[in-house]
Please model this.
Amino acid sequence: MVGARRLGCAGRVVQGDLHGAPSGGQKVSHVAVPAGHPLAGSTAPARLARLADADWISGSPRPEGTLLDAALRQGFRPRVTHVVAEWTAKLGYVAAGLGVTLVPALAAESVRRDVALLPVLDEGAPARAVYAATARGRSLAPAAESFLGALREAAARVPHGASGGAMA
Model:
């Protein structure tokens, strides 16, 4: 974008000539661990406290206001040893055995093969809003329309209720 437009991330304000259209909501659905991790392959929802001693990979050094709020709700403060912004890099760190990271539901389908996903039960979690910012009053290019449709379809596949089942 060019000019005096501002686009906020992680639920912050969108200003200028941009419009934030809700595309769905998501909750933390998985914790990513290296494929060789002792918990890899478990299908029961995991207690994050079982990973309290793990090194964590996050987009921020502090858990407050991030996906790692889930750990705080479950009674521990994760030790963030690697601050990494991009999902592909976070998952690369996990695959290399450098730590574990939480994965939102929309990103779970794109996880690499050398990373295992453990389902997480976090009943008290608020859903993260997912927005697509578009230029207010302008028609969208066909590619943008297709992207927004794909985003809405992916968000519709994400379970929005609390997970059931026994906890690992």
Remarks:
- Residues 1-16, 22-26, 161-168 have pLDDT under 50 and may be disordered.
